[in-house]
Amino acid sequence: MKEPEYYEIRHIKGETTQIEVDNGRLESGGTSFFDVAVIRVLGDSGWGVVSVDTFDPDNKKKLNEYLAQGMALASITGEKVKIEPTEAFLLPVPSLKENPTGISLEEKADLLMGIERSAKIDSIVSTRANYIEKHEEVLFFDSSGKEFTYNTTRCGFNVLAVAGKNGLIQMASEREHTIEGFNLRHKAETGLLSAELAVSLLDAKPAKALTVNAVLDPELAGVFAHEAVGHAGEGDLVLEGSSVLKGRIGEDIGPDFLTISDDPTLPLFGFEPVDAEGSTVVKTDIVRNGKINAFLHNRETLCRIGDGQLGHARAMAGSVPIVRMSNTFIENGDAKREELFSECREGVYLKGSRGGQVDPGRGVFQFNAEYGYLIENGECTRMIRDVSLSGEILSTLHSILLCANDRQMNEGYCGKGGQSVPVSDGAPHILLSNAVVGGSVVD
Amino acid sequence: MSWIERAITEGLKKVDEIEIFTVEGQSITAELRGKSISVAKEESSSGICIRTIDKGRIGASSTNNPIEWERCLQAAISAGKLVSPQEWSGLPGQQNFPSSKPCSDPQVQLGPAFLKDIIYGLIEGSKQYNADITSGGAEASRTRISLENSNGFQASVDYTDNSCSLETIHESSTGNEFDMSWEAKLDPFQTGKTAAFYAEKSWKGSDINTGTYDIVLSPMALGELIESTLIPALSGKNVHAGRSLLKDKLNEEIAVNSLKVYDLPSTTEGLGSVLWDTEGTPTKRIDFIKNGALNAFAYDIRTASRYGKVSTGSAVRSGASGSPGIGHHNLLVEGRNTEVLEEPAVFIKSVVGAHTANPMSGDFSVELSNAFLAENGELTTPVRKAMLAGNVFEMLKVIQGVSKERKVIGDMILPSVRIHDQTVIGV
Fold first, then answer.
1. Contact A402, A339 (CB under 8 A)
2. Which helix (H) or strand (E) segment is A406 a member of?
């Protein structure tokens, strides 16, 4: 066998505990187990990858077979790949305030049922709550002699409330996910929050489609940063020509007070102690002071296109590392929250997120608020529902008029290339001028 | 004695019933960057899910290491002790199924040469228009699914699957297309050609005025919009839990009277052909919407037992990593056949952000992708940027017709659909 230019093994085993409460019934609860490994081999002209179950890192004979299998696969690739040299510095995984491992399934279920129960108020027709807890033991080693192991624990819950009246149903949900340890205690009010919002939405008016000034809350503005800028700043998309930011380093993209960063070192839900290729994780400012500043990179994309830093390769267990965001946010501005509303005068205040999506090559994004309010004379008035925003990456950031100084982060999962990874997004309140708001009502 | 027989024997000492679902699969993938294969990947995977039922308490656990079946069994039994008990009609017993229709094609080969031919077709097809390949690829896989339970049910089925996709760009105009089948009958040339067509032809689009238009949703756009709205509303679990707008609407007219939405597990046109569902219940055609009226909901054994219904054979699983849920096998949408692009309309190839639709109410507002003004069967003018806002359930009432041609999109087989008076938000 021809020797590979480089190889790496990423072996992850662990367990997942899930509990579901549905309309007061403990629907399911239990633990499942997984053990997967990805062997990635760099041949003369590209990557060969072997993905297997139940990997034994001490079985050298089997490992050599996988390497040979990877080299055979690499023989059909046709792209000379160079990779950036890298150093690995392993950040300590934040310690757990309370380790969920030591808490019985029964106690977790009782606490989750309490959260779900608190959502049962008048006009609520359905409630559901889910808890998920995932432990991963990660082993990484490569042909350069790098080797490290670390363990992570992530857990969290969602609670959903559905309100109904006169044939109309509306839903609202709350979620809290963390790497800081068990988080089901003293959270009963979370269920109540979702229920009160769902009931309020029954009387909210469908949004009008219009172009209008808009204030985005930190959660929605965080999704805005993620969808409108983060994905287009991923080095693999830039490399393959699927990003409108390609070739635009140094260009103005927004006001000079605007900085948008991705930081896997922060002890938040998207934290990584080291990236999935064994590179030290770092903060990268994708936009700095209104200019496109850097791309997020893995070893291959940095070597090919430059303009950025290593440390942004991530992988779901059993999958190939690709360039991903981690904790993505708009930095605080210096405006007070109240200034945004008075400056807006007439417009909409959009809150919460039902997610978003981007076509980074075309430079168009869309995301949806959970709900909002009309802003009239600088004051929030009537509640509106089912309202989305869309825009073009290269022009929309210029329409940010003000950033407040009240940044908050929210947790979630991001999908790309068939892989889902934990992330957090955040921002302060921001004011957009002439935002294209989508709603089902047209004047 | 196999580990499955031992697990059933051991399990029956502690619970009333036990079910073991296993999946074994191999796949090979080639990923394109530009016109070159950048990554080639082989994956072998296995998984087991053990479900136990004891006095109406259902427990489950999974692992991808069959050697650990005892740990998995114990975890399933522990899970069962935790949950609320329910009415339970029992797992299916021994059954004789007629010889299975083929879902497996030996021509689908898990070798590099098979994929290289598909990749070549994609690249050649893309050359028919002025667009660059950004990414794409081809995949072939084989999967064996087996189900065995303590009531004597025992069956296995083999599937093959192959697919290809291509993403293209012309200036800042993108296009994409895919093809999938269980048979080795992909058309990668046409797939590449279509992806490049949309990238080139969508360039230099015109603005469209905000207003109401007749629209034509491609199979892809239709699938994106119904996946998170109509389809979950047809689940018996959501209906009884108060999470479906269709609750209490059985036998009511909910759509234009020519519309049919049904699950056809027996067809080999799609990817989900199956004689038994993932609990062992024989599958059958389910007419969810028949001549415009809501006719049926989907049930698995768990939900059917709880609400005094009968399973419709609608238990589906995503691999072996969990308990079955309620779904469908090959969902078809049919209606009055028409030339959908003959009269003026806004044609929509796909949408951006379909998953942000309100899953309860069906309200949505999404960005359009590869949209065109169309008439006389032709796509005339590309639309630069616009949103579509509406309600999926209301759309069903104003469908003017569907195309004869239809496309397999995973577990759905869908036509293009022409819909009257929808809100398009432009300038």
1. yes
2. none
CB contact under 8 A, A34 and B390: no
pTM: 0.94
pLDDT at A112 over 80: yes
In angstroms, the CA B362 to CA A172 distance is 14
Cα A42 → chain centroid: 29
pLDDT of B347 over the 70 cut: yes
- Residue of chain A minimizing CA distance to B111: A73
- Are the beta carbons of A386 and B59 separated by less than 8 Å? no
Tell me if residue A367 falls in helix, strand or coil.
Answer: strand
Contact list in B for residue A29 (CB cut-off 8 A) is 79, 82-83
For the domain B3-198, what is the CATH code? 3.30.2290.10
Residue-by-residue DSSP string for B100-152: PPP---TTS--SHHHHHHHHHHHHHHHTTSS-EEEEEEEEEEEEEEEEEETTB
| Helix, strand or coil, per DSSP, at residue B261 | strand
Domain ranges of chain B: 3-198, 205-427
State the pLDDT at residue A88. Answer: 85
| 8 Å CB contact between B427 and B210 | yes
Torsion, Cα of A220, A226, A229, A233 (10° steps): 170
Half-sphere exposure of A190 (CA within 13 A, CB side): 25
Q: Residue B43 forms beta bridges with which residues? A: A51, B27
Whether A31 and B43 lie within 8 Å, measured CB to CB: no
Alpha-carbon distance A296 to A312, whole Å?
A: 6
pLDDT at position A277 over 80: yes
What is the C-alpha to C-alpha distance for residues A214 and A429, in angstroms, rounded to an integer? Answer: 10
At residue A128, what is the residue type?
A: R
| Cα–Cα nearest to A363, from B352, B166, B224, B225 | B352
Residues A290-305 have pLDDT tens digits of 999 999 999 999 999 9
Q: Express each pLDDT in B191-229 by its tens digit.
A: 999 999 999 999 999 999 999 999 999 999 999 999 999
> Which residue ranges form the domains of chain A, and what is each CATH number?
6-203 (3.30.2290.10), 206-438 (no CATH)
Smallest CA-to-CA distance from B399 within B252, B258, B250, B226 is with B258
Report CA B252 to chain centroid distance, whole Å: 26
Tally the C-alpha atoms within 13 A of residue B218's C-alpha that lie toward its C-beta: 20
Instruction: Decide if A35 touches B, using CB distance below 8 A.
Output: yes
Element (H, E) at A434: strand A430-438
d(CA B219, CA A51): 33
- Distance in angstroms (rounded) separating the CA atoms of residues A228 and A220: 12
Buried b (16+ CB within 10 A) or exposed e, B231-242: bbbbbbbbbbbb
